[in-house]
C_GCAxxG_C_C family probable redox protein (Williamwhitmania taraxaci), 148 residues
Amino acid sequence: MKKQEYIDKAQSLFDEGYACSQSILLAYSKQFNLDERTAKLISANFGAGMGRLRQKCGAVTGGFMVLGLAYGNANPKDMETKLFSYKKVRDLNQMVEDIYETSNCFELLKKHATEAEVAERQHHKIICRRVIGDVAGLLYDMITTPNP
């Protein structure tokens, strides 16, 4: 798939009602041979800033999951791979913060939507969908660009 297809897929999944975290992981699940049901269940509780705690943005945590599939270590003694994967997580987080000045759900909502818009769930269209698209695109670049 091309970059825009991943972006469109993640946003379409979100439009269907999947959590931000689910939308990101599901968009990339086929690429990593992760069955959809497992992807849905693994990422289900990370939406709305981790179970609606409004902490780390769910799109970002979904991105962390994708980076784990792409770069994570399966061997607990493989510190080189583990540390490289952690660096990718920090890189994604920094890219999101460069765009939005935060990767915290509460702060994103506060900055981009009013309390009334959040109460009416309008924030999904105002900011969440946009962050999902950006994270899906950033992941594509991170995964398809050769590593140093």
The mean pLDDT is 94. Residues 3-144 form one domain. The two ends are 23 Å apart (CA to CA). The CA atoms of residues 33 and 69 lie 10 Å apart.
